[in-house]
Amino acid sequence: MIAENAQLMGRGRITEILQSALERSEAEQTQVSLSLKRSGLTRFARSAIHQNVAERTACLAVKAVIGKRIGFALTSSLDERSVFAVVSEAVEVAQNQRDNPDFVSLPEPKPIGYYPETFHESTAAFGPEERAAAVGAVIAEADQREAEAAGSFMTVVGESAVANSLGVDAYVNHTSAFLSTVITAGSGFGAATGTAMDAASISPSRVGAEATDRAAASRGPIGIEPGEYDVVLLPYAVAELIEFLGILGLGALSVQEGRSFVCGKFGRRICSEAVTIWDDGLDPMGIVRPFDREGTPKQRVDLIVDGVAEAVVYDSHTAKKEGKESTGHATDLTGLYGPMPANLFLRPGTSSLEDMIASTKRGILVSRFHYVNVLHPIQTILTGMTRDGTFLIEDGRITSPVKNLRFTESILKALSNVELVGSDIRPVGLERTMPGVACAPSIKIRDFRFTGVTEF
Amino acid sequence: MEDFCRKILERAASQGATYADVRVVRRASESIEVKTGKVEQLASATDYGFGVRALVGGAWGFACSFVVNDDEGMEVADLAVRIARASSTHKKEDVTLADVEPATGRFESQFKIDPFDVPLADKINVLLEADSIMRQNPKIAIAESSMDFWRQEQVFASSEGSYIEQVNVQSGAGILATAIGGEEIQRRSYPAPFGGDFAAAGYEFVEAQDLTGHAEETARDAAQLLEAPLCPSETTDLVLESSMLALQVHESCGHPIELDRVLGMESSFAGTSFLTTDKLGSFRYGSEAVNIVADATIPGGLGSFFFDDEGVPAQRVDIVNEGIFNGYLTSRETAPKIGRPSSGAMRADGWNSIPLIRMTNINLLPGDWTLDEILADTKHGLYASSVKSWSIDDKRLNFQFGTEVAYEIVDGSLGRMFRSPTYTGITYDFWRSCDAVAGEDEWRLWGVPNCGKGEPMQIARVGHGVAPSRFRNVRIGVVK
Fold first, then answer.
1. Which of A371, A379, A402, A408 has the most B C-beta neighbours within 10 Å, making it the best mutation to test the interface with B?
2. What is the model's pLDDT at position B332?
3. Residue B242's closest CA among B458, B454, B480, B445?
4. Could you tell me the CA-to-CA distances from A368 to A330, A445, B92 in Å, in that order?
5. CATH number of the domain enclosing B97
6. Is B46 found in the same domain as B10?
7. Using 50, 70 and 90 to split pLDDT, how confident is the model at A435?
C-alpha cells in the first residue's frame, strides 16, 4: 500500500538527476531545481468531510544562460528522456532570447550553516486517517456549542534541491502542517488556525475551541456606522497587513523599479517606533527553509527597526545590480516578481489583549480580514472586509458583536498610529507567499478608517 | 491510455468504490514577458499526470501522481479509496450523483494558427516593439508586455462508461504601462490588465489585439493619470466599460451562483453566498434589463469546453432572467439538492486537482442601447474603465472595485480624466440600479485566466461576455 506521506526520493537520487541535467546542458551556465511533494488535504464543511485529496507532484526547472540570454523550461516528468528534453528546451529558449544587460551571473555557492530541523516524522506519519481524527476533534468543539465547523487540514512532506554549474548544491527535506477552521454559530462566526512544521504541535481541539468561542460570542451582530475607530487587531489581521507590506515594497525589485514605499526613505522613520519588522527564514516559529529558489542561504534581514526603514531583501539578480550580496530571498523560479520576504516577524510588545481592550474608550476588535486588495501601492492603501468575529469595544470592554465592515486605509498610516503591541505573537500561514508565514502579535491602532458595512 | 484508465477503474471498484473516474492530463504552456526593454521571462512548461476520484461508503477520495504507469495507477487508485474511507468517518449523508449519459469521443477546440508553431523571435519582436513605443513616453517607469499560450489534452474515463478526449488551445496577450511621479503611481493596460485578453483560439487572436497599435495611447493615458485630479467622492450614475463590467459580473454574479459555495462547501476559505436556495426563482437580483447566462458552449470562450470534468455535456444555463435569479452553476453531487440536473460546471486545474464547480462563460446578455446613447442620456456621472483593484465580502454582497481610469460625464459628454477611481455598493442594489445595457455590436467576450478557488488553490480559466452598461446612484470615490 502506498504511504500518502512516504519519504519521497532521497538526496542521492535527486543529486543524480540534477547532476545529469547539468552535465547534459550546453549552456554557459545552468541552474536546475527540483521540488518534490507529497501532500494531503482534508476539507470539511457543515461538520462533515466533503473533500479529501492527496497529491504526488514534481517540478523540475531548468534555467539556461548563454551570454546574457536566459531561458527557462519546466517539466513534471523525471524520467531520463524528459529530464534531457527539458534541458534542451531551456537551452533552445535561451538561444532565442535577447540579452538581458543587467544579468551578471548565476549565484556562486555559499555554505549553508546550521538551521533548525525542517523534517518532522510526526507530520510524515500523518495520513488521511490521522487528518480525519483531527478534523473530528475540531467538529467536537463546535458540537458542544451547537455550532458547525468548516475548514481544512493539510500536511506536506517535501524535498527541495537546487544545483548550478558554478557549484551550488543545496538540498532540504521538509514537512509542514496547516489547520484552519471557521465555526458558524447561528449568526456568529469565528476562525482560528494552526501552522507548524511539526503536525503534532498543532492541537485541533485548541484551534476548534478558539474559533468556537469567538463564533459563540459573535452571535447577533449589530450594525454600526463606518468611520474612523480605534481598533484592536488580532494576529491574523496583523499578519495579513505585514504580508502586504512585504509584497508592496520590501523586496529589492520594487525599490529598483521605483514603486516601493521605501524609495528615498532608507534611514528615515516611516511608521511608529513601536514597529520593528524583520524576515527570518531560519526561525523555527515559522516554516524554515535554509535556502531560496537559487540555492542561496537565507539570511535574517531587519527591514524596519523602531519605525525606521532599514533594508529590503535581495535575490542574486537584484543584488548583483547593486553590487551587493543576495540575502537568500529568491521566491519565484524566473525572478520576474523579484525577491520577497516570506518569513516576516513583527516584534512583540508587552501588552495583553485585555490591556488593549481595557484602554479603548470606543473602538472595534477585528479578528481577521477578508479579500484584501491594493488601491495604491506607494501610499500602501488597501481595502478589505472584516470577517469571523468583529466586536464593538466601549469603555474598555467588548459590548457587542458588530456586522462586518469594509476598511480602506494606508498600512503605513495605520502602523504610524500604533498605540500598543501585544505579547501574543503567533505564526499565521500566508495566502499569497506560500509556504510563507508571518509571526505577529495583536496590536492597537488609533483612527483606523472603515468605509462601508455589509449585512452580516 | 484506454487500457491504463480501465485498469485503474477496475482496481478502484475491486477495492469498494461505487463510482470512480480518472483524468489523464498533459499541459504545455509558453509564457513570454517583456519588461522595460528586457525579455524578463521566456519559459516553456510541460506538465503530465493523472488523478483518480473514488466514491466509497458515500464519501469522496482523490489521489494523483506525476508518474504515469500501471503500477503507480494501482497505488493511486488504492490511495483514493483509502482516503474516501477516511472521509466516510465524518459524513452527514451519502453523496448521490445526478444521472448523466455516458459519453465517448474526441473533441478539439478550433484555432487558425497554432501558437506553438509561431517562431519565438516573431512573438518577442512584437512585445519588444510595444515595449519600446510605451517607453518613448518619458513618464513611463515600467512597461510590460506579455503573451501566454496554453494547450491541454485530457482523457476522462468513468466507471459509468464515459471515455472522453478533449484538446483545448488558448492564447492571450496584453500590455501595461506604469507611470511614476514622486509618490504617485498610475497605470493603464490594453486590452485588459493582468496579462491582457484571452480566448480559446490560436495566434490569430493575438494578432487581432494589435498591441503595438495601442501602445502609444496606453502609455499616454498612464502618464496623464499622474496629473489627473483624484476621483471625487459622491453618489452618482456610473457607466462601466466592458472589461471592468466583466470583473463585476465575475465577482458579484459568477462566484455567488456556485452551488458548492451556497451549500457551505467553501465557507472556511472563500466564503459562502447571499444567493441561498430559497431565493431560486423569485429573488430580484437585478433590474429587468439584467439577463445573465452561464454558457460553456460559446465558441472561443475561455470557459468553453465540450464536457466538464464529470463527463457532463457543456450547456447554456439561465442564471438571471429579466432581473429574477433563476439558476446556479452545479455539479452532479450538488444539483440533486435543488432538484435539477447538473449544469456541467465541474472543472479541475490539471491532473493533480479534484474538479470543483467553476464558472464557465458567465455572460450579461446584450441590451438595446449603444454606449454613445448611454453617455448622451447621462446628465452627470462617471465612465470607468479597466479593473485595478477588487474586493468583496465573503457572502458576495459588499464590494469595492478600483479602476485604472475614469472620466466625468457632464450633460451627456465625457469630460475630465480622474485618477484612482473606486466605486462601492451592495451586489443586488447595484444590479437593480442597472437601467441600460449596450447591444450586440459592443458586446465582447473577455477571457479571465486567473480565477482562484478551493484548497489547495486551483486556478480556472473563465469567460465573461458583456457590453457597456449604466448603473444609477452609485457611491464613487472612496479613496481620500
1. A371
2. 98
3. B445
4. 29, 15, 29
5. 3.30.2290.10
6. yes
7. low
